[in-house]
Design a protein that fits this description.
TIM Barrel; 12 strands; single chain; two-stranded antiparallel sheet; alpha/beta; 10 helices; eight-stranded parallel barrel
């Protein structure tokens, strides 16, 4: 079975730099809350929200969305992929995790990320410092999730017998996820016992990343099966293949334009050999386009090739709202049944 998730970028309303009315922003939030609530009935496993700042999207504080959506749903699992740890005090992140786990009735998923360089640069945070803060924060969060108190002495944080209240509902911890683009990061996540998701890469590169994760997890005695791995893709879906392909051409152009400011993006594919690079190129495999049958076939083939038990779809990302709504409905009614019957 391939578990289907929405990966919600939640794009900002209007073009960058264009003012919109407060009423329009409120309507934007309410429209999406209605969409996400319906996703439960359409069969999605859950929703992973994203964290972006400075105009890229409408979710600078996605935990607030989870707290708002939780009482409107019953089974949908909710998480962030991921919380950008270098921006926060790690003890505060753990406290919010525990609160949200109770507010969702034990439906929380924990996702973390080291951040996007061009967004961090706007507040003077460099890549090297962000990665160092991310690694240290993860040490604290992992320790705090396993104990009611945490002691830590590091470069950025030091405290002794710090009490963490409340404790999460899911014990010993809600499922943990890490977004990765490199083999090095995949191995690190495997040692922590975190699940991982990757995107943008070709199927071959994603397989190399997942193989490294599986190898490292086995070496340290942690779980390594398909349920630990998620493949994230940009999906353009329509009832008719011709309509989907036409919209997919626009999606491809807009995606490349959106990523142009990210210094990690390269024109040439990243070599499959292990290495320290956190750069990536956007493969044609990233763009899954077609009618429901064609989309389902592509997802099953890619997840099967890399051994991923989860699929995270950004569905009709750049389309108008009616197209976004119809795309999620089509995916739920015609693609999800195929994924849930698939073998990985």
């Amino acid at each position: 079975m391939i578990k289907p998730w929405i990966f919600e970028f939640f794009a900002a309303l209007g073009a960058p730099g264009v003012d919109v009315t407060p009423q329009a922003v409120t309507e934007h939030y309410n429209w999406y809350l209605n969409l996400w609530q319906k996703a439960e009935g359409w069969g999605f496993e859950g929703i992973f929200f994203s964290e972006h700042h400075f105009g890229a999207a409408c979710s600078p504080s996605p935990n607030l969305i989870i707290a708002t959506l939780a009482p409107r749903t019953r089974t949908l699992r909710l998480g962030v992929m991921g919380v950008v740890l270098p921006y926060y005090e790690p003890w505060r992140v753990v406290e919010e995790i525990a609160m949200l786990d109770h507010l969702t009735g034990g439906r929380l998923e924990i996702g973390t990320s080291a951040g996007i360089p061009n967004e961090m640069a706007m507040v003077g945070l460099g890549v090297a410092e962000a990665r160092a803060r991310n690694d240290e924060a993860l040490e604290i969060i992992d320790a705090a999730l396993l104990s009611g108190t945490v002691t830590h002495k590091g470069k950025y944080w030091s405290f002794e017998n710090l009490p963490i209240v409340p404790r999460p509902l899911q014990q010993p911890s809600p499922p943990r996820w890490t977004t990765v683009v490199s083999i090095e990061s995949a191995r690190k996540a495997a040692r922590r016992g975190s699940r991982i998701t990757t995107s943008f890469h070709s199927v071959g590169r994603a397989q190399a990343i997942f193989d490294a994760y599986r190898e490292e997890a086995v070496r340290v005695g942690n779980p390594s099966g398909p349920e630990r791995l998620g493949l994230r893709r940009t999906v353009t879906i329509a009832a008719r293949e011709t309509d989907a392909q036409e919209a997919g051409t626009v999606t491809a152009k807009l995606l490349h334009s959106h990523l142009a400011a990210d210094p990690r993006v390269t024109r040439e594919p990243v070599p499959d050999a292990p290495g320290p690079s956190h750069n990536f190129s956007v493969s044609e495999d990233e763009l899954i386009t077609g009618d429901p049958a064609h989309v389902a076939d592509q997802i099953v083939a890619q997840c099967g090739a890399v051994g991923a038990g989860h699929f995270l779809g950004i569905i009709n990302m750049f389309g108008p709202k009616p197209t976004i709504f119809e795309g999620h409905h089509l995916f739920g009614s015609e693609v999800i049944p195929v994924l849930r019957r698939a073998s990985v």
